[in-house]
Design brief:
The structure holds 2 protein chains of 2 kinds. Chain A is mainly alpha-helical. Chain A has 8 helices and no strands. In chain A, helix 1 packs across helix 6. The longest helix of chain A is centred in the first third of the chain and has 26 residues. Chain B is α/β, with parallel strands linked by helices. In chain B, strand 2, helix 7 and strand 3 form a beta-alpha-beta unit. The chains are: A mainly alpha, B alpha/beta. At the A-B interface, helix 1, helix 2, helix 3, helix 4 and helix 8 of A face helix 2, helix 3 and helix 16 of B.
Chain lengths: 162, 520
């Protein structure tokens, strides 16, 4: 895809910002030996609440969920910042954010134990971040500015010459 | 791409390289920011924990003695609490187990059945039961044989023998120890007779119904040398033990006011327990229920809801004030107050009861320069917690423990000014089962913990404090040691509660004379 200089810059900047957020969320959890998603999962509401609570109910499943969440956040964060396997990282990010959103949707009549840090109705920051990642999926930048440039070089060169 | 078209020109290659590595400077910036943030957190934590000298490790529990000798139990009084005590000892009603099993089948997150199966086997036998109500006695007989913790589908053969009177049960030679969960009016005579018969005793609170019964009971228990435990299972709560540690390390500064409360707002909470259909003079031994304590004609209400009448108990005092007092006695070693004033009334449940449903007790400890305030209502469930207030910090105790620095504290003034301590956030949080405590507990975590969404564990497992309290008693029977709520603690509990009851009933301030060891 061809971008103007400023189009590319702003897209990469957005990618790095979201990557930074993911990486920090993951790092904070990985250095805290007591961190667990149990409280968050148990507080989930709406039609998927049963599913999220069932994840919390089994210690084995919970350990896997915690592991995947923490390392998912870190790897997605690194992928987005470095532009490394950017499309997979972007899709992974969308998936994680979809889980967060669906477990705690800010709908009318849903009350959470954990108070939100802002005011939300249907739309919250998770949803906006998700849509931003969707946008980055449709307007990829890994090959223009990122390690994907080296990883997918051959394929890319074939594409551009073919 | 440009770079691919002209691979021999170094200039374009460099440009190509720079584009590929565009994310690296951002990652570098992240690494620096991360390192600085971690350094700051470590600094705060070290300064802070160094100052507080508290850690988050679970309290130390001495190992249990070997369980090689089976302790043979008898139980007297098998109502709501008696059933729970049997369960805590390892004998659960098959009907209850079935209910847990069925519920867990459709609600996998419900762990009651799983937790109960994991409850430690104490190597005890239930050989004798005694209750004046046939239905309860028969249920308890069946429960006594439920050694494998099974539901209704199992073929359970009753193990215990039913005794018609408690004295016959005490004469049995195959019983070493008795659990007493009758109405309070019976506690003293049963405990005294049990001790004389050489049986170890676990008795529910309040320890006695009357002040006059206390000295005899204490003297007999002490002379007999039996192992005695009073039923304040709060003694096993980890956060209370941690609270004691915090108080001993003077985290709170000069403690001047303690506020403890009871808030309930349901018929059950106000002792309006269910009256069984089919219960009547035909299957309840009314004369034995009343003993010498009451000559009231047969009344189902009095039988099932005895806590509402002075003939059988002391209402809020023996049932709930004693728990709150004992928690504070455990944390602060308060002992008997110098004086007590209490007041209240029957303001909501005007159903013919005699005991107040809204009741306040103020205990003065001039030697400690502090007041213990107890405030109770049975008609509002607002949660007020247990709070210990000191000049430097205050502490709120539930399953978790939270300490808040006081904004006008002397000790923390400098740390508050430097931004190391924020009076708006907990100074210290102890959540049982957590491995670490720090000054930077996230707001989220503290919030969940405070709401009890994080479970209380011991050695990684959720446990019932009543089970731990019975276990401590059984352990002490085997080892010959004194349990945590022994007769000395019971003496303090009973005298304090009776001072409060007397103050209410006689409408006067009541004093303790430590020299004459009597209430005046």
């Amino acid at each position: 895809m061809q971008y103007s200089k400023w189009q590319l810059r702003i897209l990469v900047f957005l990618r790095v910002l979201i990557g930074w957020h993911f990486l920090y969320e993951g790092m904070v959890k990985v250095v805290d030996p007591d961190w667990s998603s149990i409280g968050y999962l148990l507080d989930s509401k709406w039609i998927f609440a049963g599913f999220f609570e069932s994840l919390a109910a089994n210690p084995g499943v919970l350990a896997v969920v915690d592991f995947l969440n923490v390392w998912g956040l870190i790897l997605i964060g690194l992928g987005l910042i470095l532009g490394c396997f950017t499309r997979i990282a972007t899709l992974g990010g969308i998936l994680l954010l979809a889980f967060y959103y669906l477990s705690h949707p800010p709908f009318l009549n849903l009350e959470y134990v954990l108070p939100g840090e802002g005011s939300y109705l249907i739309v919250n920051k998770t949803l906006i971040e998700l849509v931003a990642l969707w946008l980055l999926f449709l307007f990829p930048t890994g090959i223009q500015a990122g390690l994907d440039r080296f990883i997918f070089r051959r394929k890319n060169s074939q594409d551009s010459t073919g | 791409m440009e770079g691919e078209k002209n691979p021999l020109t170094g200039k374009i290659d460099r440009r190509n390289m720079l584009r590929g590595l565009a994310g690296i400077p951002f990652l570098g910036a992240f690494a620096i920011a991360w390192w600085r943030k971690r350094r700051k957190d470590h600094f705060l934590k070290n300064v802070f924990l160094g100052e507080l000298d508290l850690d988050a490790s679970a309290p130390h529990f001495p190992p249990s003695p070997p369980k090689n000798r089976t302790v043979r139990l008898g139980i007297i009084g098998i109502g709501i609490r008696g059933t729970q005590l049997m369960q805590a000892a390892g004998f659960a009603d098959p009907e209850l187990i079935q209910h847990w099993k069925d519920f867990a089948a459709t609600h996998p997150e419900d762990k009651r059945y799983e937790d109960y199966l994991a409850q430690e086997d104490l190597n005890v036998e239930l050989n004798g039961i005694c209750d004046v109500y046939d239905v309860r006695a028969e249920r308890a007989l069946r429960t006594s044989g439920n050694l494998k913790r099974e539901g209704l589908d199992a073929n359970i053969i009753p193990h215990a023998k039913r005794y018609r009177t408690y004295r016959e049960l005490l004469d049995a030679t195959d019983i070493d120890a008795v659990i007493i969960a009758t109405p309070d009016c019976w506690h003293a005579s049963m405990a005294i007779d049990a001790a004389r018969a050489g049986k170890h005793v676990y008795v529910e609170k309040g320890m006695t119904r009357l002040l006059e019964e206390v000295p005899d009971m204490v003297a007999t228990i002490k002379e007999s040398g039996i192992c005695f435990q009073l039923g304040h299972q709060g003694r096993q709560t980890e956060s209370y033990m941690k609270a004691r540690e915090a108080v001993e390390k003077d985290i709170l500064g000069k403690i001047n006011l303690i506020e403890v409360c009871t808030n309930r707002n349901s018929p059950d909470g106000a002792w309006l327990y269910n009256i069984d259909e089919g219960a009547g003079p035909g299957n309840i031994d009314w004369a034995q229920f009343n003993g010498p304590f009451s000559d009231h004609p047969f009344s189902l209400e009095r039988f099932f809801r005895w806590r509402c009448w002075w003939d059988y108990g002391t209402g809020l005092s023996g049932d709930l004030f004693t728990h709150e007092y004992d928690a504070m006695n455990q944390i602060l070693s308060l002992g008997i107050p110098h004086s007590v004033v209490s007041s209240g009334g029957i303001y909501y449940f005007k159903d013919g009861r005699e005991v107040p449903d809204v009741w306040q007790v103020s205990c003065e400890y001039p030697e400690r320069d502090l007041t213990l305030l107890y405030s109770a209502t049975l008609a509002s469930s607002r949660d007020r917690g247990k709070v210990i207030m000191g000049h430097d910090a205050n502490m709120e105790i539930g399953n978790n423990l939270t300490v808040w620095a006081d904004r006008d504290s002397t000790r923390y003034a400098e740390m508050i000014e430097q931004g190391i301590v924020d009076p708006g956030r907990p100074l210290y949080t102890y959540v049982p089962g957590k491995k670490n405590v720090d000054a930077v507990t996230s707001a989220t975590e503290a919030y969940f913990a405070g709401r009890g969404l994080l479970y209380t564990y011991r050695e990684g497992r959720r446990v019932d404090t009543t089970h731990l309290h019975i276990k401590e008693w059984i352990d002490c029977i085997r080892s010959g040691q004194q349990p945590s709520c022994n007769i000395d603690r019971g003496f303090e509990e009973a005298i304090t509660a009776h001072m409060a009851t007397i103050s209410y009933r006689e409408n006067r301030k009541v004093f303790w004379d430590p020299n004459g060891r009597k209430v005046i």
